[in-house]
Amino acid sequence: MKRPVIECPPSPGRSTCRSDFSPTCAGRSGGIVGLKSGLQVDLQKALAIAAAVLISGCTIGPDYVRPTIDTPAVFKEAGDWKPATPQSPATGDTWWTAFGDPVLDALQAQVEVSNQNLRAFEAQFRQAQALADAARASWFPTLNATAGATRSATSAATDAAGSAP
Question: Burial level of 19, CB count in 10 A (0-12/13-18/19+)?
């Protein structure tokens, strides 16, 4: 590849110098400083960094050896345990009576009454919410569409004026 020749502007006490990127013109206004262009230097730096990354990816360290662990043949919890045998509760829907606690029984009676009140309040709330949504619906634009079809045929008995003979 042929190198370009650059003419440096004259400086006081010197005539023009012809240079093919020689450092003799460096520092003078209009001359190109250095032996390589900035693009070549950037490309070389990028290639050097890429090569370093690729080479460092190959060194992953020593071969992995799985550590040995001493595990007991039987765990300490395996002693007097027995498998669970679920049974249906003898009390049915009143499962809390199995605890024999009169305070719990009284609380359950209050909850049964309160649940009915809570359900009534929830129904009233949902009704009020629906009414508010219906009232608020007029604030938004509506879109309506209709479709229809008609079929008509003219009889051969009709004349051109549209009346029957």
Answer: middle
Between 155 and 35, the higher pLDDT residue? 155
User: What does the pLDDT look like over 100-138, one tens digit per residue?
Assistant: 899 999 998 888 877 888 888 899 999 999 999 999 988
DSSP 62-89: SPP-PPP----SS-GGGSS---------
Burial class (CB in 10 A: 0-12, 13-18, 19+), 52: exposed
Task: Report the mean per-residue pLDDT for the chain.
Answer: 75
Q: What is the pTM of this model?
A: 0.26
How many Cβ atoms sit within 10 Å of the Cβ of residue 8? 20
